[in-house]
Amino acid sequence: MTTLDDSELVFDKDGVRLTVEDAVATVTLTNPAKRNAQSPALWRALTEAGRSLPGSVRVVVLRGEGKSFSAGLDRQAFTPEGFDGEPSFLEMARGSEEDLDALIAEYQEAFTWWRRSDILSIAAVQGHAIGAGFQLALACDLRVVADDVQFAMRETSLGLVPDLTGTHPLVSLVGYARALEICATGRFVHAEEAERTGLANIAVPVAELDAAVRDLSAALLAAPRSAVIETKALLQGASGRSYEEQRTAERAAQARRLRDLAGLGD
Questions:
Q1: What is the distance between the alpha carbons of residues 203 and 101, in angstroms, rounded to a whole number?
Q2: CA 22, CA 67: separation in Å to the nearest integer?
Q3: What angle do CA 202, 183, 41 make, to 5 degrees?
Q4: pTM of the entire structure?
Q5: What span, in angstroms and rounded, lies between the C-alpha atoms of 12 and 20?
Q6: For residues 241 and 70, what is the distance between their CA atoms, to the nearest angstrom?
Q7: Which letter, b or e, does each residue of 217-242 get, where b requires 16 or more Cβ atoms within 10 Å of its Cβ?
Q8: Cα angle at 190 between 178 and 31, to 5 degrees?
Q9: What would the pLDDT profile of 164-217 be if each residue is shown by its tens digit?
Q10: pLDDT tens digits, one per residue of 212-221
Q11: Is the dihedral of CA 177, 192, 166, 247 positive or negative?
């Protein structure tokens, strides 16, 4: 394997690079000249990144090279020819509902694995995070943002809807009314509002972004992995349970942890 800054290079293609250093993997968007605009090829590479993670990885950091995290969908998608080897939007619309649903579901896979129970994911976001870029940041468990961040959901201005899994976490983080206003207006959300409303866990100066992500990664790695996995599962399921159901889930999880600590686990 090739090494890159003391990390093992797993792959580097289609605008995505995956490196691993001990328990931390870094997924980097590598097309700063186009502000890390997204395409189906990039989405497939992101999906492959999730499938390629070694079992030793506990934290995954998602970042973008250059001044922008991701400016969203590459505008070539809106041209009649679309991307080479890919169906254009017009061709997609002319297909059957089943084919269109399956294609969008394939694209969504790039955004779903970041919340897997066995990892914690952190988006390190600077500059523009627009549309698909905003949704990619929302796909992660946590977000650390630079003070120049500009989140925006611009799909409605194009006559579309956010369809890359971003609506559920957005509503969960900021509530229905604010989520609707953000999506319907397409306005920018800057660092102060992002931190205040829960979109961002931490907001720091641009020069401190990498250091803040390293510090957070180290803090997340401090606790035993099994305890973190159980806690993440408890929190992920909390919104779908009643108070009494959550109490029951807590008891079951704690019983598993105690048996494991006593060496009585399965």
A1: 37
A2: 27
A3: 80
A4: 0.94
A5: 12
A6: 35
A7: beebbeeeeeebbbebebeeeeeeee
A8: 115
A9: 999 999 999 999 999 999 999 999 999 999 999 999 999 999 999 999 999 999
A10: 999 999 999 9
A11: negative
